[in-house]
Amino acid sequence: MFLYLLIDLRMPDKLIVPPRRLLSFSFLPLFLLFLGLQPASCGGQEPDSLAPVVTPETPAGPRPTVPNGYFLFPIKPGKTNFLAASMGELRPNHFHGGLDIKTDGRVDLPVYAAADGYISRLKQSSFGYGNVLYITHPNGLTTVYGHLNHFLGATAAELLQRQYEKQSYELELFFKPDQFPVKRGEVVALSGNTGGSAGPHLHWEVRNAQDHQLNPLQWGGFTEIQDHVAPMLQAFAVEALGIEARVQGVFGKSVFVPKTPPLPNGGGYVWADTISAFGSVGLLVQGFDRFDGVWNKNGLQRVEIRINGQPFYRHVVDDVPFPDGTRQVNQHMDYEWRFLQGRQLEKLFVDDGNDLTMYTTGPRKAACAWRTGKYTPWKSCWPTRMAILLRCVLCCGANSRCTTRLALRW
Ligand SMILES: [Zn+2]
């Protein structure tokens, strides 16, 4: 599902003041502007092609390829299931690292091994994941099953014995590949509500060997979850990033809340008022996604910006390094705004100190240097359309039911 934000950006009546903390400023585009040449956009500040933002601290690494259908859905496989939470939702000090699968409001539903492998680890705890089981698969990925009510079979017996030995309820055990092999579809545990859980559900994760949390839905193949509901926009914001920057005439952040519902058939929202911006600014967005048949709000997981149809910014929360990277949620969202206003805005630019690799941007990391104004001699050099695309977690392509649109005028 997509949400479009159309912006009519006008050219400055004089040159842009050199940017800001994020931009590495070059005079060449300005020189070209004087020559009447067309640089890329605010737009003009970014190259056409996007390159992943990769830093030495968190190398992206190879993206694992998992055949469609490799993983079995661990709760009621083959039947309609519902999610209480999706991958990447913004939580206090972390991204939600997997799926929260509803269990009909009860505990003790059978939990199925998602693929062949072996039980590599389990932990019994009153906190966090509660009772949690890890199954490591031949492809190097590990599936994690959290908040369980009971372990089953040989692992449960092993745990009980070790608990008596250690005289401790809370215990974490690691196993070798030949100790507790499991087959795809084997019932390995019963679902529960243990640890930091607010209601019965299964927390299900996929991790790679480096403990990155990977979105289980990214490889497709699950008919159990359906998503044909367009995301909702709650608010968007424009923030001054450079000391020279102004939004609506002030240095700070202006938050805009659409008061009218989106137009039907993908027409999206219309923001009729003029917004003024000057200098280096960034965009932020607040919204949520819903899946079919449930009313709870899931997070936005994929957001893009396009300027004049060209890619400018993209993030997809499909791969979060655990546990260090996940804390950078506080750089990804506007922490101050959440703390002070209770509003959860996600930055659509890569801020200082954020070295997560889930972003794809140009070298300016999606901060824009632009200026709006009444006098627009250079207007033709500047973008006339900017689109923010909020994509559903399960991408349903060009289906208009998955499309929302916001039009802005500057
Ligand atoms: Zn969870």
Automatic annotation (TrEMBL):
It comes from the Bacteria. Residues 95-152, 181-216 form the M23ase beta-sheet core domain. It holds the Pfam family Peptidase_M23. Gene3D superfamilies: Glucose Permease (Domain IIA) (2.70.70.10). InterPro entries: Cell_wall_metabolism_enzyme (IPR050570), Dup_hybrid_motif (IPR011055), M23ase_b-sheet_dom (IPR016047). This is M23 family metallopeptidase. It comes from Hymenobacter volaticus.
